[in-house]
# Entry
Amino acid sequence: MPELPEVEVICQGLRPHLTNRIITTIYYSGKPLRHPVPFAAMDEMLCGQTISTITRRAKYLLIATKDGTPSRSCAAPDARDTRPSLAVIIIHLGMTGNLGLFPLAAPIKTHDHVRWQLDNGLELRLNDSRRFGGVWLLPPEQARNLETGFFAGTGPEPFSNLCTPAYFMAIAQKREQPIKTFLMDSKVVAGIGNIYANEALMAAGIHPARKACTLQEHHWQRLIPVIRTILTQAIACGGSTISDFINANGERGYFQMNFQVYGRKNQPCHQCGSLIEKIQISGRASYFCPHCQHG
Ligand SMILES: [Zn+2]
# Structure
C-alpha cells in the first residue's frame, strides 16, 4: 500500500507535467473502484479545464482546476455554460493503484481504469488491479472547504505545526491502545502507515506495544522529529530514484530505503546486534529491537 512518502513523490513527479495543462478528454473502464467513479460529472465539469495545482493531503492526491478556463474542448463559448470552475479531483491509490503519464499512443493496460488526456500529448492513467483505490470529484463549493468537508475526519499532516507533544498527549491520554496503532490512526495524524510507524518507534527507542497514554512529553519530543526525519528521507529517496514520470512502467519498487527494523525479523539490529523481533499489533506486522526499544 502506498504510504505518505510515495504519494508525495508521485505528486512531485506529476506536478511539472500536469500544471497548466488542459484536460481534453476523459476515459473510464466502467469498472467501479472502492466507490463508483464519478465519470459523468468529471466529463461534464473537467473537460476543457486547465489544471492549476497538484497537491497531497494525507495519502490522497489532489488535482485542482483553474478559475476562468476555456469551456469544453475549446469549442465556441456556450452562453448557457454555467459550469463552475475550481473543481478538485481526489485520487487514493488503495492497495494496488498506480498513476503514470504516458504518450497517447502507448498501449492501454488491462487495469487502466481512468485516463485523463491532456493537451500536451500525454495521458494520466490510473491503473489499479484490485480496485481498492478511489476517485472523487469535488465541485467548487466543496473544493473550497476541504478541511471542514472531505478531510474533516483527517488529522494534521505530520509536518504541520499542529503536531506538538501537547496535541498528541491530549488525545493519547484516553487511549489504551498501543502507540504504534495510535500513530497509524489517520484521525490523529495523517499518512503514517505501517512501515514508517515501525521505523519511527525504533528511531525514538519506544516499544511499539507500549500504551499510547503512557507516553510522556519527552517521548513525544523525541518521536515527532524522528517521524518527520524518516518521512523526509523516504521522500528524498523516492524522489532521487524517480527522475521521469513519462513512460512510467507502472512499478513501485523505487523506495530502496535502508529500514532499521521493518521486514528484518531475526536479523541483527544495526545499533546493538540484538535480533529484531516480529509481533502482531492490531493485526499489523510490527518489528522492533528488544534492546533499543525498551522505552
Ligand atoms: Zn538494537
Notes: The CA atoms of residues 114 and 268 lie 44 Å apart. The pocket of zinc ion is lined by residues 269, 271-272, 274, 289, 291-292 (CB under 6 Å). Confidence is low (pLDDT under 50) at residues 68-85, 246-254. DSSP finds seven helices and ten strands in the chain.
